[in-house]
Fold this protein.
Amino acid sequence: MKKNKTAWEHVQLARHIDRPRTKEIIAMVCDDFIELHGDRYYMDDPAIIGGIGEIEGFPVTIIGHQKGKNTEENIKRNFGMAHPEGYRKALRLMKQAKKFNRPIINFIDTPGAYCGLEAEERGQSEAIARNLFEMMDLDVPILSIIIGEGGSGGALGLGVANDVWMLENSIYSVISPEGFSSILLKDASKAKEASEMMKIIPEDLLELSLIDEIINEPEGGGHLNHEDLGNILKKKITTKLISYNEIKKESFNIERYEKFRKYGKFNNKDLKV
Amino acid sequence: MIGKLFKKNKTIEIKSIKTTSRYNDISAEMYDKCEFCGEIIFKEDLIKNLKICPKCKGYHRLNPRERINMLLDDNSFEEYFEFIESSNPIVFEGYQEKIKLYQKRSDEKTAILTGTGKIDGKKIAIACMNPYFMMGSMGSALGEKLTRLIELATNKNLPVIIFTASGGARMQEGVFSLMQMAKISGALKKHSNQGNLYVTVLTDPTTGGVSASFAMLGDLILAEPKALIGFAGPRVIKQTIKSELPKGFQRSEYLLKHGFVDQIVKRKGMKNFLSRVLRIHQVGYNEKK
């Protein structure tokens, strides 16, 4: 695939207000979906939604960050920035999926986990850490698809998957370009320059073998044509569900660990090797 | 940055020291200014006191070798994976030079020290992060060393003890550093599934990607007094919520109160405390005669 957009253009498309969000994608992809609420400890986090459904006859558990379509809805959804409750709800539903042997599909679309006082008080770190720890071990397939912004630990909290896909106009990063620019470039206004250095667009991440597949969007981008994007995703996901069906149950967690185990580039100066 | 800070303080304070008999003929290398109370302390006194200020009781950060020396049985430490060093995975300009600078300054290759050792004769796998090495930030090399240590502990059924001190993921390595969170957590899950003990000791500071992964996954989570522990840094939170933060927010005592830390353990009692924990885990209930 040739690069025809700058990284900054990717960032803007990934954040585009008209992009289809998790709820809408679920409606397009699923034949049936029942939303399930709450983490059973504290509250229901509107920034992450989840539930059970059916895709072409396959039972699935689906979870995703939920951004809003407008300012009002974004305030309700906290712009897709989850509190610890969101991650705990996600984990509850993923463990439920394991019990009933259902594949898990996660849609990632968040600037990051919420950085607020109450989020700290209720253990944002612990909630994300717990998800990474437990997700690694689930013996059902997990497919994570980055549909917009894949921001840092808040994205990874739903991203420990057997397959990680990115929509053509999505991004995946360790920190926002704004954060990167203010910390490393010592200038908060250099987000655009930062985005070009950070390797956050799907082509770069595929080249670095950090994701598995790029899903092409309809001409001009998914924000212009939700329906076609829905159809593309439904077809891709169904094909994947069929292929998961042929893999032995015991191998999903092993494969997932081996996949993440390989991540990292470093110098090995071991003379014995 | 920290080095510069200290140098600056030293030169300012040299002038203010009165020439009493004790301060005669001393060189700048012999004393430090306490970062908490500003008092001038003899380095020797500070080290003897486990780097806790004798005047204000403030905990100065430790580098990994200092930690190992005050914690493990004499000569029991065996370093592993020292041959792993950072590369420049996303080719970020100036990154390699920065690594070299910190290597030279700290006389360490990475921001973590990994190995095995003994506490009162009980063998453990141990890792200590270095807050003086790029703020203990976690990149691929750190993640790999830690993962290998945990795998070694899993193979030999050894307890793992990690002293955390980190600002979080190393941004210069992009998504590679983010992935270390999952990689290390996965290795810990395997270690845990075999019934092995994992203890984390959170020291100042433990934030970001380190806090949101292995730091919070201990069977026991301990903390040094008054350490800063959080997902986001206080400055970011202040910006987000646009108001002042409560006193003591994100400190060890605050986390204890909110249920995220098992105990706050003072530096002086750390070895003994860990020794007791290891002893209780040494023999399984069913193995007891």
